[in-house]
Amino acid sequence: MLIRIESAFNLESTLDSGQAFRWKNRGDYFEGVVDQSIILLKQVADGLEFESFPKAEKEIESKLKYYLSLHDDLEIILKSIAVDQNIQSYIDQYKGMRILKQDPWECLISFICSSNSNVSRVKQNVEDMSAAYGEKIEAFGSIRHTFPSPQQLENASIPILRQLKLGYRAEYIYEAVKLVSQHVINPWSLLEEPYEEALMTLTKIPGIGDKVANCIMLFSMGKDDAFPVDVWIDRIIKELYPEELDDYIQRKYSNQLANKKRTKNRLKTPSVNRMIIKDWAREYFGDYAGWANHYMFHERRKRLLRS
């Protein structure tokens, strides 16, 4: 089935940029699991060709368009974040990359797995959990599994999760499962909550700090101004925007700067530094700051993979 796309679209950068972990590059197409189905996606001249099973293409088309953010006006978004030549150069390289709208539960668990890890390892963690607790799907010559629901993961003890090579993250996943399956926290309801309230709720879950919470909000909750700051974004912002950051600190923290010694000590703390970077970036890049974030992250990751 064909989904026609009239604006710019970059399938490879969208699916293989570290925001989702269920997609496999099969050469001329991508294979993934979305909405309880195996999906085959191929970019063609006038859009995307796709196949799905067990859900029929007609049944899954609207979900796939939402997942790929095809209803978002990419030209408006990119024009909004192209505030300087730095970000414009990244847009030019990867124009058409879109921010996904994944299932919040799957995204939450996936990014708990991402702590002190890498994309390849997280992909394996997610596949292993799905194989152990999800439902089997066999189609297109592949055997895949749905991502397990909170109820399906309820019987997964910490030792069993550790056997899936999740390490210390097993305890965090176990606690997250309890909170969601017992209806203490509802990740789906956070789509309707403002950024600050969603952030406060997510960071109550063990293993979810500010960076992971912003990843979850950006990649599954439609909060386009969420701005995750990891080691790479930290370095990029400090490299590209030292004067802008300094001006922001002078403007926002003028009272604290009256006591230079105390302020200098405070800024040496990485967590505080990254909070300042996040707040500055959300102001500087505006309503779609998260898109700017991911263009910067993807460009740096691709550069490092080439080196």
Average pLDDT over all residues = 93
How many distinct folded domains?
3
Task: Output the helix-strand order.
Answer: EHEEEEHHHHHEEHHHHHHHHHHH
Would you count the extended β strands for me?
A: 7
CATH T-level topology of the largest domain: Endonuclease III, domain 1
Q: CATH-wise, what's the superfamily of the largest domain?
A: Hypothetical protein, domain 2
Q: What characterizes the major β-sheet?
A: 5 strands, antiparallel
How many helices? The count is: 17
Q: Compute the gyration radius: what is it?
A: 20 Å
- State the low-pLDDT regions, or none: 267-272
- The level 1 CATH classification of the largest domain is Mainly Alpha
Query: What is the distance, rounded to the nearest whole angstrom, between the alpha carbons of the first and last residues?
Result: 38 Å
Approximate helicity band = 40-55%
Q: What fraction strand?
A: 5-15%
Strand order of the largest sheet: 1-5-4-3-2
Which architecture of the largest domain per CATH? Orthogonal Bundle
Alpha-beta content class: alpha+beta
Apparent shape: globular
